[in-house]
Amino acid sequence: MLTNLQQQPADALLALIKLHNADPRTDKIDLGVGVYRTGQGDTPVFGAIKAAEKKLAETQESKAYLGPEGDMGFVEALMPYVFGKVDPTLGGRIEGMQTPGGTGSLRLALAMVKRAGVRRVLMGTPSWPNHAQICADLDLEMAGFNHATPDGTADMDALREVLRSAGEGDAILLHGCCHNPSGIDYENDEWDEIARLVAERKVLPLIDLAYQGLGLGMDEDAYGLRRVLVAVPEALVAYSCDKNFGLYRDRVGALYVMMGEEAQLAAAMSNGHALARANWSQPPDHGAAAVRLVLEDEALVREWLDELDTMRERIRQVRSRLAAAGKVGTLDLAPLGGQNGMFSILKLDKEQILALREKHGVYMAGSGRINVAGLTLGNIDTFVDALEEVTT
Ligand code: PMP
């Protein structure tokens, strides 16, 4: 029976990691994997998380089941950072549940919109590949629209066009900040327009916020999400703590649901809980409990936010250095300075990407996506020289 299963293509990024690991060159540069790296090339555990984990080990008295909603203390402690300190539940209309990472949250959110009768998911392309994979797995129809213009700004015309023909029964998946893979986010005035259009067309927004704090700042990175939420009656937010708390493998995320009225929340959330039960039953506890302990302790919150500031500043510093190189062969690196988060796309063809890998030991995804956090002040010049060589 199981021989009916067809060979699936290997995940391209995981294959790239293997190639990189097998490369003996000591000056190789890994721009493929989507994790933050320090100037020394490490992905360390946050100090605030280490302290919280220590506390957790000392004080946790039971590991008995919590339920499909996970650690609600974690879910609620995060809300002021996501939705704003003044009214984090928007008048009692938002409730959440813990999920295994942002991916688990997206899986539940998309399964919920399908159950609710949504027929199409509008999605800017390119996007994080798992968005399309989850939609395809759930048999949800996708309607792609172009995300970015060739000059490196968001393609608002394409967005306006897709929304013009959209209506009730459609959902739109939006990256809250630090667009993956392009780094091209909407400006605040563009978010104002998106909020108005989405409300006018009665399209259900699903906002993926996986990098809060890594773009322009915690509040700045939530501008679009907050703007959309005050404009519409219903919305879903898929949140990941895996980047902004450095918890990648611990799988920490949350799904938030906003309804038109507080009384409608119980029915909607009961679907989230039932779907979780059928998928993973309960989310893993450890990482979320550590985040909760950080958020419950003022000193640890300060330490966490300081660590996040350092990461963001380093990313911006690398971006400025790349942007300062300007025109490099056929590439213009200047727009990278104004883009946000860890990722940007370089317009390189397959041969150029291969030459970068084989001749220069520079590893990047086949799409030309680079993780700028893979660069250090010590190797940026080597990288720019390699780009120059393969593009001229
Ligand atoms: N959304 C986007 C845009 C992402 O880039 C990622 C992670 N690469 C996620 C969601 C999911 O993150 P997690 O690792 O928490 O599942």
UniProtKB/TrEMBL annotation:
| Family affiliation | Belongs to the class-I pyridoxal-phosphate-dependent aminotransferase family.
* Enzyme kind, highest EC tier: transferase
**Per the UniProt entry, what are the Gene Ontology biological process annotations, in alphabetical order?**
L-phenylalanine biosynthetic process from chorismate via phenylpyruvate
Recorded superkingdom: Bacteria
Q: Which cofactor does it need?
A: pyridoxal 5'-phosphate
Q: GO molecular function: any one?
A: pyridoxal phosphate binding
Instruction: Supply the InterPro entries for this chain.
Output: Aminotransferase_I/II_large, Asp_trans, PyrdxlP-dep_Trfase, PyrdxlP-dep_Trfase_major, PyrdxlP-dep_Trfase_small
Show where the Aminotransferase class I/classII large domain sits.
Answer: 26-387
**What does UniProt give as GO cellular component?**
cytosol
Q: In its UniProt entry, what is this protein called?
A: Aromatic-amino-acid transaminase
Q: Which NCBIfam families is this protein grouped with?
A: PRK09257.1
Please name the CDD domains in this protein's record. AAT_like (cd00609)
Query: What keywords were assigned to this record?
Result: Aminotransferase, Pyridoxal phosphate, Transferase
Q: Which SUPFAM superfamilies match?
A: PLP-dependent transferases (SSF53383)
Which EC numbers characterise this protein's activity in its record? 2.6.1.57
Oligomeric state and interaction partners are given as: Homodimer.
One Pfam family for this entry, by name? Aminotran_1_2
**Is Transferase among the key words of this record?**
yes
